[in-house]
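Give me the fold.
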Amino acid sequence: MPKNTSVAAHLRRLLELLAAGAPAEDFGAVATEARRVGAGADDLAEIEQATQAALRVHSALRQHQRREAELTALFDTAGDLAALRDLDAVLRSIVRRARMLLGTDTAYLTLPDEEAGDTFMRVTDGSVSVLFQNLRLQLGEGLGGLVAQTARPYATPDYRTDERFHHTHSIDAGVLDEGLVAILGVPLLLGSGSGGKVIGALFAADRTPRTFSPDEVALLCSLANHAAIAIDTAKAMTDARVALAELAEANAVIRERSAAMQRAEESHDRLSDLVLRGGDVADVAAAVADLLQGDVTVFDAGGWPLTETARGADRAGGGGGAVGGGSAHDATGVDGSGGPAPAGAAAAVVRAAEDSRATAHAVLHDGRWVCAALAGQEMLGSLVLSGRPDLDGPDRRLFERSSVVTSLLLLLRRSVAETENRVRGDLITDLLTAPDRDPAGLVARGRNLGIDLNRPHLVLVASTGADVRERLAGAAVQYLFGTGSVSAEHAGTVMLVPAGGTAPGGAARAAAEQLTHLVGAPVTVAGAGPAAGPRALADAHAEAARCLQALHVLGRRGAGGSAGELGFLGVLLGKDHDVGGFVAATLGPLLEYDERRGTQLVRTLAAYFGCGGSLTRAKEELHVHINTVVQRLDRIQAILGPGWNSPEHALELQLALRLRLLSLS
C-alpha cells in the first residue's frame, strides 16, 4: 500500500471512530495497527498526532453532551416545578436526576425536623440499606449535619477516613451498611447571602473512592435550588389551602346571619374559582372592584403598582370589573390630585400597609382602605380600595380575605418567576460571553424560554454601590415581575432585557427611578438598542456598559440615559465610533469653504480657541493683523450661525478640531 494511502486509511479510521462515538481506548488501537502493518516513523508520528487531536475532539464532544444533558435536566426540573402537583414526586425526580447526571451509586435528600431539632432522610434513590434510609443527623454531625449547620457544600473522596467531620456510631454504621465511600452534599437554601435559610440538603454518593469536580458541585447546587423552591412552593400551597378553608368557613357564617352575608359567600366563591382557573393578580383586583363597587389597585411591598386601577361596574359606567386605564397612583390618596410624585405615593402605601399588618385588618387611610398581603409576617404587597369609605363588616371581611388570595397568587408568581429567571439568566450569560459560538443554538434556547432573540430588544445595564450590590439582582427581578422580561447578573452589574420599547434613554431613566426605590440606594442605568440577534444584543450590552461608565465619570450617579443622549460623548461611546462623521458634521462647512476659497478659517478657529478667545494672542499666533482675525471670525459666524461660540457648541467645535488634528498626525 502506498505511503500516503496508508496514512489516509488510518486517519479515515480515526474519523469513523469519532463519528461512531467510540470509547477513548479504541483510538489508541489505530496507531497500534499502523505499527503492525509496518508504517514508517514519519507516518507513525503523523498518525499519533492525529490520534491526540481526535482524542481532544472526542473529549470536547463528551463534555458538550454532558452539558446538554445537565441543561435538559435543569429545564425538566423547572417544568416539574412550574406544574407542581405532588411535592414527593418532584423531590424524587430531583434526586433521581442528581444520581443520573453525576453518575453516582446513590443520591438522597434530607429535611429538618423542627420538633426533634435534627434532620432526617426524606427521599433516597439507589439506596439498599434500611438502616441508612432511617438515619437521623444532629446539626454538625457527619458530612450532612455540617452542610445543614454551615449552609455550605462539602465533598469527601472517602468519608470513613475523613477527619474533617464529626463521626458518630449511628451515622458511621448507616454509611457502612450502605457501603458508601465518596459523598458530596450541598444545602437547600431559600434566599441568598447572609439572609438565606437552610431547609435541607441534597447528596450524591459512590461506593468507591471518587473526587467530585467543581462542575459537579455546581450542578448539584442548581438541583438543590430547584428542590428548595419546590418545598417552599408546596408550603405556600398548603397555606393557600388553609386560607381557602378559612374563606369557606367565613362564607358559612355569613350565610347563617344575613342576606348580605350570602352575597359575600358568592364573592368568595368567585375569587376561589378565579384562582383555580388560573387568574392573575389583575383579575383578582378587577373582581374585587366589581364586587365592592370601588376602585382597587394592587401594590408590591415597596409601594409600586403591580396593576392598573380596576374600577367597579357601577363606578366605571359598566364594564363588569375590567381593568380600567386610570393611573395606579390615583389609589394612593396622597393628595387627591391624581398626580402625586411616585416616591411619595409609594411611601404612603407602605405606611398604610404596615399599619394593616400591625392590626391584622384593613385600615382606613385618607378615605381609602388598605389591606396588607402577607405570607406569614413577610410583606408581599397590599390592596388599596377607594370609593368605599363606608365599608361595612361583611364587605370589609371580603376585602381582607381578598388579600389572602392575592398573597397566594403573588407567592406562586414569585416562585415561578425566580425559577424562570434563573434559567433565562443562564441564557443571557452565554449570550454575553460567547455570542458567536452557537448563535442558532442561543436563538433556539431563547425561543424555548419565551424570548425571541431575533426580535428587537432594548438592553439596560444597571449598577449600584458595592455595599448594596447584592440587593440589585432581586430588585431587577421584582421590577420586571410579570412583564415577560429577563434580567441577569454579569461582571458586577445587572443586565435587563425589557419587553418592548424603542427609546433606550427613557427606559433607562424609568428603570433607574424604580430600582433606586427598590434597592434603597442610587442605581445608575444605561440603555442601548433596540438590537436583534445574539451578536447585536452582545454589542448593545457593550455599548450600554460604556455608557454606564461614562455616567459614573460625569457624576450622574442614580441617573439613566443612553449614548445617543450624551452629545459628542455618544459618538465616542457608540458601537461604530464614527469619529470622521462627527468631525465632518461639525467642521464640514468651514473645511469646504477653506478648500473652495483657499482661506484659513479652520486654522483661525483653532488658534482662537487655543488662545482662550483672545484676539490679540490669536493674531500673534497667526502672524496677521487683528482686523484679519475679526473678519475671519465674522465669516465663521456667517457660516456656522450666531451660536457657534456658545459653551455647548464651542465644546463640540474644540473636540472636532482636536480629533481632526489627531487624524492628520
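The chain has 23 helices and 16 strands.
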